[in-house]
Q: What sequence folds into this?
């Protein structure tokens, strides 16, 4: 018995999506440095190199038509000789091109850990192993490449190379040759390779035992938007595959294959945009900014200071009281059921101290954790607006929290600046609006804020001159429907290892944020491995592409994300499925897209949107993670039917409006009408 290993895309593979990627890379180099070669060849090298290989095969067949079945492979020199004849190259030019191509192959080639380990284990057990390859490279060329990966391969196993023997696997004749030379029957050859024809069908027809190894083939999400002549796509696809094959955990693979492509271009854009605008300091907003800051610092920003700013919607919005009724609306609006303790959280970073005062002012003397029904919440809103004692309590707490926040902002250098650059993921920049109002409370427009965002769904009404917002991945009004799952997946990708900012406190003369306890659950989920994957992708991609080229890939990466939101890969759905997530900073963390039971699937269909979110934040991800009966129950047709059944409620009329129309109405409707509409929809 002998064990036969295919070489390319089995034992070794490339850091580009397809073999043509090596030629595209070489074309880029020749355009930058032609080395005296014809400009037409440099400009079209990838195409000309492929055409020369095809022409060389035709020429080999034409030289001896009667022996065509013997001419089953050409070699490296034949291809480049043909290329030389097509473009009038000297022998020195041909030799130089061959050397450049081999050097490029060596740059991109790497070993497949699973197969190298399997090969070594067989060899060390004393089993007979051979290498067999359909390849135009000469023995000396292939030895140079394989020795650069693992000299053990050729030290241990004989090499059967189609370019040398002039027989190939695709015809099956190379297996017959191996059996004859090795002195074994064809049935004693156990071959493993990636090609369904030359590594599986043909050797099986000859009687060999075969094993298909497809791990080096691009998965559908890795091959998404394939463009073999685009070096950015080639490197991206190659790095996706390398991450899948070489990283040691699925959390790391999730970070490399799905999160990093969305975050790395954004960070490069932030740096470029900030420099263009003349900013020398960047404030990355907690918590989404933690991983962005980490990436930025790994890129080495010698000319720019970076800081991490502990702020949150909760910590900032409670401090803005210029529009008291808007503040009350914010206090009482939630993604989930609210209790008196939740209202206290909205008012203060020390909610326990307010409970008795709130109970006395509202007449709610039961447990502060009891959920409040819609009628009680409407009554509370009336009380907050009309009751002087309750209004004084709200304004008192707003002033206290604002003073603590200003002390922290002063410590971090924001109050001393006249222009501040903020970095966040999105989605409307309301934290920036609150910071702008707080920093300019006593002296309007003293501090100018410029926010750089991954994406923006809408803009607030603050003045554009001193409160600018710029988005990278998408702009307001781009979506027909609110892309909740897309946005929340990105929020999962930018999760921090600490909790949300609830407020501030002074200790030993230093102002510290008060954080909730969410960080532990996210760390336990596997955040460190996830971040390691992000850094692995960033380092690998940055080796081959410039910052401008990485930024230019963002439309491709964003289209890929939109595709995967609707048709998730198993890796994405499974690994993000149990991520601990809550859209409300004071809410309970729940799995993002868990596998559902039949009962949960039924409950999902019959529940309104807010309650659906407690079952799963991403229906398509839960579909992938669930059993087949649940997938059938939660299919698109069943979902549409349940939507019709639930459409009897007035709030469902809103769902039929395009998202840009809803945003336009929110911006244009008078505030009293907007409040009345919200009250009606909460009934």
A:
């Amino acid at each position: 018995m002998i064990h036969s290993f295919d070489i390319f895309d089995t034992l070794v593979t490339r850091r580009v999506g397809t073999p043509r990627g090596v030629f595209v890379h070489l074309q880029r180099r020749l355009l930058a440095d032609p080395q005296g070669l014809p400009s037409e060849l440099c400009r079209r090298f990838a195409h000309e190199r492929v055409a020369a290989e095809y022409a060389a095969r035709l020429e080999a067949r034409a030289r001896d038509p009667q022996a065509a079945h013997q001419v089953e492979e050409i070699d490296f020199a034949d291809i480049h000789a043909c290329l030389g004849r097509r473009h009038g190259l000297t022998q020195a030019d041909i030799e130089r091109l061959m050397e450049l191509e081999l050097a490029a192959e060596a740059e991109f080639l790497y070993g497949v850990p699973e197969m190298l380990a399997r090969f070594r284990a067989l060899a060390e057990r004393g089993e007979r192993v051979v290498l067999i390859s359909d390849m135009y490279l000469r023995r000396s060329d292939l030895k140079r490449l394989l020795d650069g990966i693992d000299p053990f391969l050729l030290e241990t196993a004989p090499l059967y190379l189609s370019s040398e023997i002039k027989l190939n696997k695709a015809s099956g004749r190379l297996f017959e040759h191996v059996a004859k030379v090795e002195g074994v029957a064809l049935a004693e050859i156990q071959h493993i390779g990636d090609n369904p024809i030359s590594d599986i069908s043909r050797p099986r027809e000859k009687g060999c035992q075969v094993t298909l190894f497809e791990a080096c083939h691009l998965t559908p999400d890795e091959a998404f938007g394939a463009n073999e002549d685009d070096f950015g796509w080639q490197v991206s696809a190659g790095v996706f595959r390398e991450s899948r094959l070489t990283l040691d955990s699925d959390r790391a693979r999730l970070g490399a294959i799905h999160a990093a492509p969305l975050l790395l271009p954004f960070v490069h854009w932030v740096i470029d945009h900030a420099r263009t605008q003349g900013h020398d300091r960047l404030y990355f907003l907690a918590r989404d900014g933690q991983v962005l800051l980490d990436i930025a610092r790994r890129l080495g920003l010698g000319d720019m200071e970076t800081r991490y700013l502990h702020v949150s919607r909760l910590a900032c919005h409670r401090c803005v009281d210029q529009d008291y009724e808007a503040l009350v609306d914010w206090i009482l609006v939630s993604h989930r059921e609210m209790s008196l303790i939740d209202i206290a959280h909205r008012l203060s970073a020390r909610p326990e101290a307010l409970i008795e005062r709130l109970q006395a002012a509202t007449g709610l003397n039961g447990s502060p954790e009891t959920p409040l029904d819609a009628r009680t919440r409407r009554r509370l809103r009336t009380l907050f607006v009309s009751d002087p004692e309750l209004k004084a309590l709200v304004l008192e707490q707003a002033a206290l929290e604002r003073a603590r926040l200003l002390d922290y902002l002063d410590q971090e250098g924001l109050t001393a600046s006249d222009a501040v650059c903020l970095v966040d993921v999105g989605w409307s920049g309301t934290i920036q609006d609150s910071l702008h109002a707080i920093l300019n409370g006593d002296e309007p427009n003293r501090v100018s804020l410029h926010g750089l965002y991954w994406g923006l769904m809408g803009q607030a009404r603050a003045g554009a001159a001193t409160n600018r917002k710029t988005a990278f991945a998408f702009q307001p009004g781009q979506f027909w429907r609110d892309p909740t799952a897309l946005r929340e997946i990105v929020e999962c990708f930018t999760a921090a290892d600490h909790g949300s900012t609830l407020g501030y406190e002074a200790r030993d003369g230093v102002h510290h944020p008060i954080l909730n306890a969410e960080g532990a659950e996210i760390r336990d989920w596997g955040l460190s491995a996830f971040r390691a994957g992000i850094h692995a992708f960033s380092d690998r991609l940055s080796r081959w592409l410039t910052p401008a080229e990485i930024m230019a890939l963002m439309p491709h990466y964003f289209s890929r994300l939109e595709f995967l939101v609707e048709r998730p890969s198993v890796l994405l759905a499974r690994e993000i499925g149990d991520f601990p997530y809550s859209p409300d900073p004071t809410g309970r963390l729940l799995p993002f897209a868990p596998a559902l039971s039949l009962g949960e699937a039924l409950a999902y269909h019959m529940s309104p949107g807010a309650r659906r979110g407690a079952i799963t934040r991403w229906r398509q991800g839960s579909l992938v993670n669930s059993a087949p009966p649940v997938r059938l129950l939660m299919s698109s047709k069943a979902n549409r039917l349940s939507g019709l059944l639930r459409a009897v409620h007035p709030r469902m009329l809103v769902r039929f409006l395009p998202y840009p129309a809803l945003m336009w109405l929110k911006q244009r409707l008078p505030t009293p009408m907007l409040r009345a509409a919200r009250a009606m929809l909460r009934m």
About this structure: The chain has a mean pLDDT of 89.
